[in-house]
Specification:
By secondary structure, this protein is α/β, with parallel strands linked by helices. The protein folds into two domains: 237 residues, TIM Barrel (Alpha-Beta Barrel); 46 residues, no CATH class. The chain is 43% helix and 16% strand. The chain has an eight-stranded parallel β-barrel with strand order 1-2-3-4-5-6-7-8, surrounded by six helices. It has a two-stranded antiparallel ribbon with strand order 9-10. Helix 7 runs parallel beside helix 8 and helix 9 crosses helix 10. The longest helix is centred in the middle third of the chain and has 18 residues. It starts with a strand and ends in a 5-residue tail after the last helix.
Length: 293
Amino acid sequence: MRSLLFAPADSDRKLDKALASGADAVIIDLEDSVAPSGKPAARGRAAAFLRGAISSTQRPRLIVRINSLQSGLADADLDAVVPAHPDAILLPKSEGAASVIHLDAKLTAREALFGVADGHIRVVAIATETASALFGLGTYRDAGTRLIGLTWGAEDLSADLGAEANRDARGEFLEPYRLARVLCLAGAVAAQVMPIDTVYVDFRDEAGLRREAEEARRDGFTGKMAIHPAQVAVINDVFTPTPNAIAQANAIVAAFAAAPGAGVVGIEGVMYDQPHLKRAQQLLARAKAPGAG
């Protein structure tokens, strides 16, 4: 998934726009974008939207962000949306593998109850929204097979830390949030799941979004979340391997295939070793993924 677009579950108009945005995934949000008084109605709208969209062959992945396990609202969220067969649940304020395992148990029970195939609903965890969560990033490798991705957040983390800001005057993340970003990336790679970069909140700043997305791709993230449909095209463009990159990766793979057992190969005067081969294989796998262009 290159692009994951949030849409509030209580707005049919915004859900429909998200579905048509070209995003690889739509995140139907029952958490921060829905007022407490509106959550019961939003659950019903989320379920209805899922039922209407899930059967389409040309659709993005449909993910529901539930309220946190600590909120006391997660069970009602799951009761409403699991019967509608979402592709995944986005778990906010995750505190490590234990949180994912807790959610796994809730999903397993409801899949059995509502006739959903066992293990059908996957999990993406927002892994850095509290200070204590930063110490659990290395545990996700033990979270089980439902987990398919980790992402991170700076807004809730800054509130938990009591910080005055999470970006500097140039719009760059400050050190506590750069640490959270690196830990998320490392935790996802260690768990062998997708590392997904956080949102860029200024949706009118296309240049800033592109710069931040390119930095994320450079460092190893494979996708980025979005808060506005206008951000989707930029994110998809940045995270889609270019023809030149694909050609170079193919050349590296072919050179190693032609020299079985070689630790190093040369292409047009440049030496490539096993880490280059691994990166080339990863890029080609992303290029072949659904939605990669």
